[in-house]
Amino acid sequence: MPETKLNINDHVYELHSPVGTTLAEALRDELTLTGTKIACGEGHCGACTVLVDGVPTLSCITLAHSVDGARVTTIEGLRDHPMIASFVRSDALQCGFCTPGQIVSAVALVEASAAPTSDEIKHAVAGNLCRCGAYPKIEEAIRTWQD
Amino acid sequence: MARLIRTEKEVEGRYEEVWLVVEEDALQQWPAGAREIVGQPALRVDGSERARGEAIFTADLRLNGMLHTAVLRSPYASAVVKRIDVAPALALPGVHAALGVDEIPQLASECNYEGSAVAAVCADTLAQARTALAAIVVEWEIREPLLDPDEAVRRGQFVDGGDPRLRERGDYEQGLAEADVVVTGEFRTAPVLHNSMETHQAVVQWVGETVEVHISTQYIWGIRDAVASELELPPDKVRVICHYMGGGFGSKNEPDDYTFIAAELAKRTGRPVKCALTRREDNVNAGNRNATIQRLTIGAKADGTLTALGGDFVNAVGWSGWSSSTEGPMQMLYTCPNVKTTTYGAQLNQPPMKAFRAPGFVEGTFGLEALLDQLAAKLDLDPLELRRKNYADHDAADSRPFSGKKLMECYRRAEPHWERREEVRARSTDTIKRGVGMASQIWYGGGGPPSYAWIRVGSDGRATVVTAMQDIGTGTKTAMAQIAAEELGIPLAHVTVSIGDSARGPYGAISAGSSTTPSMGPAVRAAAADAKRQIIEIAAQRYHLEERVLDLKGGQVVSADGNLSTSLAEVVGLLEDAQILGKGARGPNPTGMQVLTFGVQVAEVAVDIETGEVWVDRIAAVHDVGRVINPLGASSQIEGGIIQGVGHTLSEERLHDPRTGRILTTGLDAYKLPTIADVPEIISELVDEPDEHLTNLGSKGLGEPPIIPTAAAIANAIRDATGAEVRRLPITRAEMLRALREQQERAASERPKEKVGAPAGS
Question: Are A94 and B674 within 8 A, CB to CB?
Fold first, then answer.
């Protein structure tokens, strides 16, 4: 079985999941990094968003072996990022199931543009669904993350 | 002292007469207004663990040896399994067990709706279970499904308890005869899907004689009782655990088939078994807000006084479920002497409905409030004045007084938003029309007994609240911490709340019907007061003072004369390993009173009359839910309710093939949930005055009220912008264009006889 080597949150892992395993499954089932959520499994909701070489990526429709050698950042790798405190401060979550994905998308945005406009925020996280409807406060959290 | 009473219990607008053991609630309410901690904005006590991805949801559980399940479900709306063979599945790699029809009651050969479960396989991995599922051989006999709600009514095919429900007061025919004007309309609402981000799922394992059920649920104790009953176990042999759950919105009140499938497979294999619905299974099989058809009539005097309200309501319930109170708003919202409603619970070959955030009232408010604006237009009356004119100052349906009603105050506070309509309309262009609409809200939300909390205070002066409730994302845990901290006079950070496990704490209320805070909150306060009493007893002995002069404030034990002010930690430091244990119970609701929530929303919209596209620009919401515990969490609840309401109004619709009944919108590509880009500006305000008759808090629930008037307010804003009368939810472009065409035709036919009168009085 070919191995996939990934740098995940600054640690190198050799994955043994069979070819066909998605990155989300590998993270959650093989490595038990369950901060990354699966809510639709089809790439429609954004809950599974992780960074692959800095780019927000839907891990539930990305095959793990297809990103061999990449640097992957999950919510577990962002636990000290100020965006987390900003989400809590703004009450930008309710049930919290979509929140890790929201935060990963938000971090990618502010790494590229530290003070994004409202339109840029909406564009960046429009693919991250939140059924509780925390959206106004998600926007606020991303706008005020440096406070 | 415990007291046994016979009382009415309300859940989601349904009443039942029950015996209740209640404990007296001896505490006086706090005075109105924000206090040190209660009424102040508080950050979610579990916000950080959820945001950091540390919170372990049911979906995240990985128990040792855990097996995964795939469920074979009927692809047909109506079919019978003639033959099934699960043996080929059992022969495949990784498979541990398989269940076929009739092995448990949840797997039945009669499939009366798409998604009805017929077989299940568990295996080491989910992929293996799915592969094995495909090997099961099934021979189906496909039947013709019944899908038309009106046809079900004609055939008299109703769900259990869904027989026509006639509610009448006064003389409806007489009321119509007295009316100067009568308006009628047929309104339809589409079925919509909950789409909680965490799908429905359970992990079940047997530990000795106890079955442990980890489940994403809104009601730990309901799951415990239902599983005990179904498996014929003593309830204490069922342990239900839910520390975090990813949304429910009414769909996660019951155990459902997946829990029982997992329980049986766990028993057979001796392993923990997980059964999780996929998103597509969830959107077929995990419940829905059912479609409705509403044929409504309003009669009124020329001055707007309502003389008659009538409606035939058809709830397209699905195969089973219950017939929601779609007539509720018509019965309850306005004072009107003559009201007659008939509600039908049509049984169809469609998946069963489930409660969805104010079931019936979201739908019924859309029809009633849209027709009321049609009346206002016909009478040339201001819609807000029309509502004030017909204000109900007591429960019109049964003459009971309200325990508290501040709807008039909501209307007053909505005025600045309502007064924007001239300015908003003036921004219209030739093709983009703008307008403002409003709608009122009425709903339950008073909660009730029983609910219990324990509290322990250690020698460090910190407190832990213990109660076996759940927090479904509403922030209940935070509200409970605030209440305990307030009563004990300690900082919020010194309170921990332990919830989520039926084996570790007393009974906690269901998180549904906007009842969690009003049910649990008073119990938590009573428990904290019990602990406080004991602390004061100890302090009185330590400092040789009378108990009545002592109080706990700001982390200090203080005496009335100010001579004593010593830290709580110093007093309870005497305890060493001893602990103060307080307990509290939710007292009864006020006898002979109707406990309800109220509100109003004002929507601003823009309509492209060429394409039929509708934008919601702004919604202002003012609600009366009694005392507010956490204004920050409350504003989030209001925003979330409104955003779901906007989804219901403009984009969400479960579609099915009209011939086969098969559901077409199972994925999140086809079922259109609102995104961050669809959110209007939202302004929220709460009257925030305690309901003086309700419990030691005066607080009601806020989960459901904000979603109720949103669709109606948007529809009325569309009328204000364009004159068009939309009749169905969601208001798709096709519906918008149909309404615009109808309005043009009406205008054309009315033009010759139109006389030029005085300008509108506005």
Answer: no
Residue-level pLDDT at B762 = 40
Q: What CA–CA distance (Å, rounded) separates A114 from A134?
A: 22
Region B207-215 average pLDDT = 97
Cβ contacts of B642 on chain A, cutoff 8 Å: 133
Residue entry with tokens 């979610």: B44
Positions of B marked catalytic: 704
A135–B62 CB contact, under 8 Å: no
Determine the distance from the C-alpha atom of residue A100 to the mean position of all C-alpha atoms in its chain, rounded to a whole number.
Answer: 6
Average pLDDT rounded to a whole number, residues B648-660: 97
- A63 and B CB contact within 8 Å: no
Q: Report d(CA B325, CA B294) in Å as an integer.
A: 12
Cβ of A132 under 8 Å from any chain B Cβ?
Answer: yes
Q: Dump pLDDT digits (tens) for B217-252.
A: 999 999 999 999 999 999 999 999 999 999 999 999
| Residue B130 backbone zone (phi > 0: left; psi -120 to 50: alpha; other: beta) | alpha
First to last CA, chain A: 48
For B499-535, what is each residue's pLDDT tens digit?
Answer: 999 999 999 999 999 999 999 999 999 999 999 999 9
Q: From CA B642, how far away is CA B661, in angstroms rounded?
A: 30
**Which residues of B fall within a CB distance of 8 Å from A97?**
57, 59, 196-198, 246-247
**Contact between A93 and B51 using a beta-carbon 8 Å cutoff:** yes
Contact B673 A138 (CB under 8 A): no
Q: Which of B52, B198, B249, B619 is best to mutate for the A interface (most A CBs within 10 A)?
A: B52
Contacting A residues, span 15-54, partner chain B, CB-CB under 8 Å: 20, 28-29, 32, 34-42, 44-45, 47
Round to whole Å and give the CA distance between B495 and B508: 18
* pLDDT tens digits, B404-462: 999 999 999 999 999 999 999 999 999 999 999 999 999 999 999 999 999 999 999 99
Higher pLDDT: B604 or B162? It is B604
Q: Report CB contact under 8 Å: B51, A44.
A: no
Contact B198 A139 (CB under 8 A): no
Longest dimension (CA), chain B: 92
pLDDT more than 90, % of chain B:
92
Strands (E), B476-632: 495-498, 550-553, 556-559, 565-567, 580-585, 597-608, 614-624
Please give the mean pLDDT across all residues of chain B: 95
pTM: 0.97
What token pair was written down for B145? 């499904």
Count CB neighbours of A3 within 10 A. Answer: 12
Tens digits of residue pLDDT in B610-630: 999 999 999 999 999 999 999
Out of B43, B278, B643, closest to residue A91 by CB:
B43
- Does ipTM surpass 0.95 in this model? yes
What is the rounded CA–CA span in Å between residue B200 and residue B158? 27
Q: Which of A132, A138, A144, A145 to mutate to test the interface with B (most CBs of B within 10 A)?
A: A132
Smallest Cα distance from B220 to chain A, Å: 16
- Give B81-92 as a DSSP string: EEEEE-HHHHTS
Neighboring chain B residues of A98 at a CB cutoff of 8 Å: 197
Q: Å from A38 to nearest chain B CA? A: 8
Amino acid residing at B276: A
CB contact (8 A) between residue B674 and residue A133: yes
Distance (Å, rounded) from C-alpha B414 to C-alpha B419?
A: 9
**Would you list the DSSP string of B507-526?**
B---S-TT-HHHHHHHHHHH
Secondary structure of A13-80 as H, E, C letters: EEECCCCCCEHHHHHHHHCCCCCCCCCCCCCCCCCCEEEECCEEEEHHHCEHHHHCCCEEECHHHHCC
